[in-house]
């Protein structure tokens, strides 16, 4: 049986896909103001979660390559 921690694990790819769908719905312009605001709020939350996950991944890479003498990179350059 999987651990509870694994069940709550953030799925970066799924979040990006959901964000793309949200943007598509918002760009269509078929939503009411209330629905648009709700979708926008969800999009902001997804964006923040994705940014946090990217920063976490960047920290892992830096830690792993600390002794390897490789150059650091900025996650913002990947977007």
- Mean pLDDT over the residues: 84
Largest sheet: none
Tally of individual helices: 3
Rg for CA atoms: 17 Å
- In whole angstroms, the N-to-C terminal distance is 36 Å
Order of helices and strands: HHH
> Unreliable segments (pLDDT under 50, ≥5 consecutive)?
none
Query: Would you identify the CATH architecture of the domain at 11-65?
Result: Orthogonal Bundle
CATH class of the domain at 11-65: Mainly Alpha
Shape: elongated
| Helix-and-strand structural type | mainly alpha
Oligomer: single chain
Helix amount, in percent? Answer: 55-70%
CATH superfamily of the domain at 11-65: Exonuclease VII, small subunit
Question: β content, as a range?
Answer: under 5%
CATH topology of the domain at 11-65: Helix Hairpins
Please tell me about this protein's structure.
With 79 residues, the chain is mainly alpha-helical. The protein has a domain at 11-65: Orthogonal Bundle (Helix Hairpins). It is 68% helix and 0% strand. The protein is built from three helices and no strands. It has helices spanning 4-7, 12-28, 33-65. α2 (12-28) packs antiparallel against α3. The model has no long low-confidence stretch (mean pLDDT 84).
Summarize the structure.
The chain is mostly helical. The protein has three helices and no strands. The termini are far apart.
Search tags:
79 residues, mainly alpha, Helix Hairpins, 68% helix, 0% strand
Outline the secondary-structure elements.
Elements: H1 4-7, H2 12-28, H3 33-65
Helix pairs in contact: 2-3
């Amino acid at each position: 049986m999987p651990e509870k921690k694994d069940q709550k694990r953030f799925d970066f790819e799924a979040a990006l896909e959901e964000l793309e769908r949200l943007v598509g719905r918002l760009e269509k312009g078929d939503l009411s103001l209330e629905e648009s605001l709700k979708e926008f709020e969800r999009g902001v939350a997804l964006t923040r979660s994705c940014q946090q996950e990217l920063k976490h991944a960047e920290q892992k890479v830096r830690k792993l390559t600390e002794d390897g003498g490789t150059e650091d990179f900025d996650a913002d350059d990947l977007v």
